[in-house]
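Structural prep section.
Before we set up the soaks we want a predicted structure of the protein with glycinamide ribonucleotide in place, mainly to decide which crystallisation condition to try first. Input record follows.
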Amino acid sequence: MTKRVAILISGGGSNMVRLVESMTGDHPARAALVLSNDPDAGGLKKAAEMGVPVAAVDHRPFKSDRAAFEAALREPLDAAEPDIICLAGFMRILTPDFINAYQGRMLNIHPSLLPKYRGLHTHARALEAGEAEHGCTVHEVTAALDDGPILGQARIAVEPGDTPDTLAARVLGMEHRLYPAVLRRFAEGNREPVEL
Ligand code: GAR
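Run finished without errors. Recording the tokens verbatim:
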């Protein structure tokens, strides 16, 4: 049976676009919802233009009440009956309660070769550390930040003269290849890591 995929975004949603575009033909999944914590996220318009249902739950009125925000987020999310949830540039930290509710079916893409450089500013930190290699990771989401079983990684060489921006651009290009490849494999029930 076709798997239903919900994609959570906070911004432009370029990874989301690649995921939605990939789910055609004999792909075992289809996009059921694109959901954002920011009603102005550019990706919402792109998703709607691609014919995907969209919803937004603004996190700001909830201030520090994460539980109340997540309860509100779960309304459209659960209504979409997702089999798989893809975090794609979703920039809110989720509580263990939320994560546990979707255990084993939530994926995230992170712009570093995990377990290196969890958190933010990954490209600048990789450069400062003098890394010869950098990249991105898709992993299953568990309660620990940017942790959980690795489902795929893509590597690039760090070149002389690279800046955080040039690295970010090259890594993003790899993210666009890696995430659809991992999603397809995961939707087929295969958790063997993708290596690009
Ligand atoms: C991507 O580079 C993604 O890896 C990163 O945000 C960007 C979103 O771009 N995610 C994180 O940093 C999560 N901690 P997009 O909106 O164009 O897909």
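Observations: The chain has two domains: 1-102, 109-196.
Flagged for discussion at group meeting.
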